[in-house]
Structure to design on (1000 residues):
């Protein structure tokens, strides 16, 4: 632990987190642009999310009459926990000191803390929409979170560590072989990611149609700076799941040292991986229709089962 | 003379008994209860805490004797590290209760119930619990156990004007007595081999595997009945809501822990080397209990009943930790076994803190909002800001969210479970991760449940007039909650120091500690090794505080520049249909509806839709109500069959009761012959 008191390492980790946060809107607009192209619509410019943030931060904040302090503090907590989660995840450099502070289980816990406040904020104003969104969000999260944790467990058993840096290092050291546990884990993580980030077929980030929305229902009452923070958190969460998928299961190219050339390679590799993942997401969202609300538990049960199969296949086939 | 653990222990018990004695006159002078009795309880709790700290920081366990009990066996007392830890838990919660009580019992001063009974029994109850954890022979243990059970029966039956409370109290007493009988039998098996009732003698005997398993099974059922493992939990959701709230806090926060203490003492101290199947049984029981508890909590809308079901869930989590410990100990993997035990002890401490906090918060709501039903609450954060703040901390802790204490113990349990790969048996390697998955599910469902509780009770708009005019609780009541909330945060942020203390307990109990967990200094919690897993709650909190500080600087800087007025308030979006009413909010039943839909087979749901039509206009409803009630499946599948069996068995036995004198004489005669034959 002592060698982690290295100042350069901490600075590098902070810079990496800043890069992570800065790239989150870029990933979102990439997905959106591909979707627009696929659907024969004119895509928004690349700078659109950044312009939105500038506009929202400049706007005046309005509060509902019934809003309590929880409503005002929630955007900061939601955004803060998401940034903290992003800081734990190796982005372009594996051995970040933050990963020692908080392991993969803490990552899940941190995201859960943000979700808790997001759902409370939804309940706070006392409208039906907020309650509806919170109820659905928490229900799906209650099923998605265990699936996510089982994926983490499988990886942790595989590499005998819950530390994200160690896990990625372990996968990097492996010869290229198809491990069933990793394959099932990858599928489960993708399904969980779709649910957690509210993408089609679970939730539609582009609509405000009350019958279908989950995430948008919870943040309906937010304005100005608060809304900007909530939007940033949502975009960051999407990027977090994409980076997790890319770096945990396909980590090749990520840098293990603070060498400039290696970091450059790592950045290019990660950008390419994220571009592919984003394109796949966009294609998926274009091909698949949103499913009925009560089909989602089945979707999640599939994720849970896949994760469990992944873990058990490790124990049965690959252990010892 | 510096205070010794012995002195503190006697003072603790003495003060608790004194508080009981003082309360005899409370019916005539209520002020005695409010001032004298609770002050003495506070003194007792501080003495108990002192005894705990002195024992855990010193080395020698204290052994003593009270001149009570049988002529040849005086009551043996022993204050070792495990007993001191549980004494400390009792002390912490009692301290909070002694702040909370004076304000809370004010509402009973003009009621029908006797304040004297309340004070007398509270003192006896606490003294009984303190005696249970320090008793060092089976006889003293059982006497103290019964003192605790019977005193708490009177507390559950405190408001006995209501038939439901009388029924709850009777159910509680019945199950407590069956449990005590099973515990007695379990001790009987041990005493039969040891030839002595002292725990020291029992711990030194070698039982045959069959008898060891028998004693284990009896102990699991007996202590489980008090702790509330499924399906022996039926008394919990009935008794906790019936008792006054500060008593619920003590019962749920502490008394269940005393049962856990008994189980740990029996299995890890007295029974010797465990068999692996015990671990699997405890693990399975724990997993089922945790999910069952949280699923039933989700469909409750009586706040105290909901909290009672959450106690069932948390007992399940504790038992998962104990099961893991047993499995690893039986396999000889003592490092991980100790870790499981530490996780269980840590969760025991945490649950005592956050569950008492939540029950005290519920008490404040009941007293000032006059409501126990979530469906009638709402918007309490505007009326009771302090209670709302502390209740939120309780909700975050129980939902196992970082950086609060509930998260640390679940994290430790997960870390233990992940070491399953080191076991030889393939079945165990598969079973343990599945139980970890179950634990993850129950943790996530608990978070859902507490979003429901907090969102419906404290946020939104008030649903009834009385809640709309609720007042903040008195200073003492707020202070009590603040104390527990602070402890929840402290035990969450300084896990390494806590694990260091817990390691002393396991070292004393099993001969093994975890040196690896604390080897990296107080900043880092590394349960197995730094490269396997590490968690630094203080650094995370530091990061959070730095971020908050930076934001505050930016905020005040821009604010000074803008010089804005308070944030403007507007009406929320109402879809253009006119003003929102409190009836349009999501209710507790509505919130849990998707969960009810997904886990349908877990409950037997009774729905009732009341629709009163306007007599003038048949299509216009004047009142619409939707009532929902979930029956506990354990009644249908366990209690009712058991009851039928007992009834029919009694009827069969009743056949020999012919009413003829000659038959009874024949029975006596044959009994005599059988006895003579047995003796010779």
């Amino acid at each position: 632990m002592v060698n982690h008191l290295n100042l350069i390492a901490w600075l590098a980790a902070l810079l990496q987190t800043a890069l992570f946060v800065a790239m989150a809107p870029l990933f979102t607009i990439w997905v959106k642009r591909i979707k627009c192209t696929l659907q024969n619509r004119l895509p928004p410019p690349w700078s659109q999310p950044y312009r939105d943030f500038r506009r929202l931060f400049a706007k005046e904040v309005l509060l509902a009459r019934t809003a309590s302090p929880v409503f005002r503090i929630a955007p900061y907590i939601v955004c803060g926990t998401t940034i903290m989660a992003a800081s734990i995840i190796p982005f372009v450099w594996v051995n970040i000191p933050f990963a020692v502070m908080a392991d993969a289980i803490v990552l899940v816990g941190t995201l859960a803390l943000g979700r808790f406040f997001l759902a409370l904020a939804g309940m706070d104003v006392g409208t039906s929409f907020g309650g509806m969104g919170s109820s659905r969000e928490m229900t799906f999260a209650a099923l998605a979170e265990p699936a996510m944790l089982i994926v983490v467990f499988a990886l942790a058993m595989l590499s005998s560590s819950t530390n994200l840096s160690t896990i990625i290092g372990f996968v990097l050291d492996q010869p290229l072989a198809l491990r069933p546990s990793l394959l099932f884990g990858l599928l489960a993580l993708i399904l969980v990611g779709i649910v957690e980030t509210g993408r089609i077929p679970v939730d539609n980030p582009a609509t405000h149609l009350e019958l279908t929305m989950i995430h948008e229902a919870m943040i309906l009452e937010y304005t100005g700076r608060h809304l900007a923070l909530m939007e940033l958190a949502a975009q960051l969460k999407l990027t977090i799941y994409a980076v997790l998928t890319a770096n945990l299961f396909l980590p090749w190219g990520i840098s293990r040292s603070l060498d400039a050339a290696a970091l450059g390679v790592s950045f290019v590799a990660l950008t390419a991986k994220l571009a592919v993942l984003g394109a796949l997401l966009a294609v998926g969202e274009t091909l698949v229709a949103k499913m009925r609300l009560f089909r989602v538990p089945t979707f999640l049960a599939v994720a849970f089962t896949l994760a469990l199969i992944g873990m058990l296949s490790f124990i049965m086939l690959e252990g010892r | 003379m510096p205070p010794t653990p012995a002195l503190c222990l006697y003072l603790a018990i003495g003060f608790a008994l004194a508080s009981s004695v003082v309360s005899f006159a409370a019916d005539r002078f209520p002020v005695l209860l409010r001032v004298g009795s609770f002050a003495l309880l506070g003194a007792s709790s501080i003495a108990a805490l002192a005894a705990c700290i002195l024992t855990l920081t010193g080395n020698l366990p204290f052994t003593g004797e009270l001149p009570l009990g049988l002529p040849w066996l005086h009551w043996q007392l022993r204050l070792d590290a495990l007993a001191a830890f549980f004494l400390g838990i009792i002390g912490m919660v009692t301290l909070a209760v002694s702040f909370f009580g004076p304000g809370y019992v004010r509402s009973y001063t003009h009621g029908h119930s006797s304040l004297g009974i309340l004070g007398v029994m509270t003192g006896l109850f606490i003294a009984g619990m303190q005696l249970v954890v320090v008793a060092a022979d089976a006889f003293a243990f059982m006497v103290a156990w019964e003192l605790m059970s019977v005193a708490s029966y009177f507390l559950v039956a405190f408001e006995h004007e209501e038939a439901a409370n009388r029924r709850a109290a009777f159910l509680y007493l019945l199950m407590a007595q069956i449990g005590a009988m099973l515990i007695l039998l379990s001790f009987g098996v041990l005493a039969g081999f040891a030839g002595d009732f002292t725990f020291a003698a029992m711990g030194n005997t070698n039982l045959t595997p069959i008898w060891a398993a028998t004693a284990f099974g009896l102990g699991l059922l007996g202590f489980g009945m008090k702790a509330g493992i499924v399906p022996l939990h039926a008394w919990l959701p009935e008794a906790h809501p019936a008792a006054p709230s500060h008593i619920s806090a003590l019962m749920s926060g502490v008394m269940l822990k005393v049962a856990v203490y008994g189980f740990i003492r029996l299995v890890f101290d007295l029974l010797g080397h465990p068999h692996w199947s015990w671990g699997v049984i405890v693990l399975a029981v724990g997993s089922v209990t945790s999910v069952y508890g949280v699923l039933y909590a989700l469909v409750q809308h009586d706040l105290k009943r909901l909290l009672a079901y959450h106690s069932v869930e948390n007992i399940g989590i504790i038992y998962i930790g104990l099961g893991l410990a047993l499995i690893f100990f039986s396999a000889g993997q003592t490092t991980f076994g100790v870790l499981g035990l530490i996780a269980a002890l840590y969760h025991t401490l945490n649950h005592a803190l956050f569950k008492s906090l939540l029950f005290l918060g519920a008490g404040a709501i009941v007293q000032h909002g006059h409501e126990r039903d979530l469906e009638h609450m709402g918007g309490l954060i505007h009326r009771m800001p302090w209670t709302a703040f502390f209740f939120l901390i309780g909700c975050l802790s129980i939902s196992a969210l970082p950086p609060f204490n509930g998260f640390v113990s679940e994290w430790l349990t997960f870390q233990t479970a992940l070491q399953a790969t080191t076991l030889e048996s393939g079945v165990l390697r598969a079973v343990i991760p599945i139980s970890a998955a179950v634990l993850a599910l129950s943790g996530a469902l608990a978070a859902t449940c507490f979003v429901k509780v907090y969102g419906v009770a404290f946020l939104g708009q008030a649903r009834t007039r009385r809640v709309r005019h609720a007042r903040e609780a008195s200073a003492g009541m707020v202070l009590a909650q603040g104390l527990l909330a602070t402890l929840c945060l402290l035990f969450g942020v300084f896990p390494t120091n806590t694990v260091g203390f817990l390691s002393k307990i396991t070292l004393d109990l099993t001969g093994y500690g975890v040196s690896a967990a604390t080897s990296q200094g107080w900043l880092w919690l590394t349960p197995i090794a730094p490269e396997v897993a590490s968690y630094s709650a203080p650094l995370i909190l530091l990061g959070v505080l730095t971020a908050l500080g930076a934001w505050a600087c930016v905020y005040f800087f821009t604010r000074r520049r803008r010089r804005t007025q308070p944030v403007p308030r507007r009406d929320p979006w109402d879809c253009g249909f006119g003003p929102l009413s409190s009836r349009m909010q999501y209710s507790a039943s509505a919130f849990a509806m998707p969960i009810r839909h997904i886990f349908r087979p877990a409950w037997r749901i009774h729905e009732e839709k009341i629709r009163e039509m306007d007599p003038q206009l048949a299509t216009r409803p004047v009142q619409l109500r939707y009532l929902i009630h979930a029956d506990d499946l354990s009644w249908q599948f366990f209690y009712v069959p058991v009851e039928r069996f007992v009834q029919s068995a009694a009827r069969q036995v009743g056949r020999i009761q012919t009413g003829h004198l000659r038959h009874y004489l024949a029975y006596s005669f044959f009994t005599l012959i059988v006895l003579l034959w047995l003796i010779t």
Observations:
- The longest helix of chain A spans residues 7-38.
- Chain A has one domain: 2-318.
- The beta strands of chain A are 63-64.
- The two ends of chain A are 29 Å apart (CA to CA).
